[in-house]
Amino acid sequence: MSEVRLIPFEVDEVVEQSQEVVPTGVELIEAPDIWKAAEKGKGVVVAVIDTGCESDHPDLKGRVIDGKNFTTDYGQDESNYEDNNGHGTHVCGTIAANADKKGVVGVAPEASILALKALTEEGSGQFKWIIDAINYAVDWKGPQNQKVGVISMSLGGPQDVPELHDAIKRAVENNISVVCAAGNEGDGRNETPETSYPGDYNEVVQVGAVDMTRNLAPFSNSNDEIDLVAPGVNVLSTFIGGRYAKLSGTSMATPHVSGAIALLINESNKRFERTLTEPEIYAQLVKHTVTCGYPASGEGNGIVALGIVQKIDDIIKRLTPGGGQSFPNKVRV
């Protein structure tokens, strides 16, 4: 089997500090609109399979609750999952950077990160490392008996590996949402498909990229398995060395969706007064999207818009005599 690599990404800018509290991408997907109802993702564990995470970054302190190194970095020390590339720390910040009125804030700022280092400093790794990391995430239990709710993977390759597919199917069967980057091999034409694995597996949530004005990024892969899009151009987040950086790529769109699912798990479970299954959470995710005006091969169901359901509900209530509840307290998929 060939190696799997980071989905190609571009470092646009690295800065020592950030004055921006809520990044534009977090605002664009309307994450703050449901922070209260979703308790900012508190208690939800997101397994980030990447280059590791700088766990002592000022904006990530307390967010990383555990991790493991599956690579040959650090002399194969399994306990050292620190990021020596930058990509994984950037992803983790978009998901769960602390809401501490400084630096940046993530989509789900009280979610927990399980940092699984399956890619080396060079951004490459063996398929076995990825597979082992997925299985580890499925079996992992935290100190308070927590389980992983979301797996986030901003990586990929051209090869369909059956063992990788089996590991992903096992995760989904265990009610874990698996979110993957679509890839950056796009040619700007939605009618010509580009595929990358594991993103192309039907069981995953495959994420394409748009810019901050909801225009489809020309590098974003198009294919018939795209589920939705999220901000992936000039995305500001945490970076190694206690710094911040703006990066571009579907790698940056993916954690927006991973964080959104963390919020929806809390919000939906509370609203329906039970634990929703992975297909039901996916249905809720799709319900919280709006089209950007592109073909489904480019944008899937559209861009994440976490406040859209409440906005529609408010409008219907104003138009309904008595202001009754417009959405039944049931989920159908």
TrEMBL record:
InterPro entries: Peptidase_S8/S53_dom, Peptidase_S8/S53_dom_sf, Peptidase_S8_Asp-AS, Peptidase_S8_His-AS, Peptidase_S8_Ser-AS, Peptidase_S8_subtilisin-like, Peptidase_S8_subtilisin-rel, Subtilisin_Carlsberg-like. CDD domains: Peptidases_S8_Subtilisin_subset (cd07477). Residues 41-290 form the Peptidase S8/S53 domain. Gene3D superfamilies: Peptidase S8/S53 domain. Keywords: Hydrolase, Metal-binding, Protease, Serine protease. GO terms for molecular function: metal ion binding; serine-type endopeptidase activity. One of its GO terms (biological process) is proteolysis. It comes from the Bacteria. The active site is at 50 (charge relay system), 87 (charge relay system), 251 (charge relay system). Belongs to the peptidase S8 family. PANTHER family: CEREVISIN-RELATED (PTHR43806:SF11), PEPTIDASE S8 (PTHR43806). This is Type II signal peptidase. It comes from Scopulibacillus darangshiensis. The lineage of its organism: Bacteria, Bacillati, Bacillota, Bacilli, Bacillales.
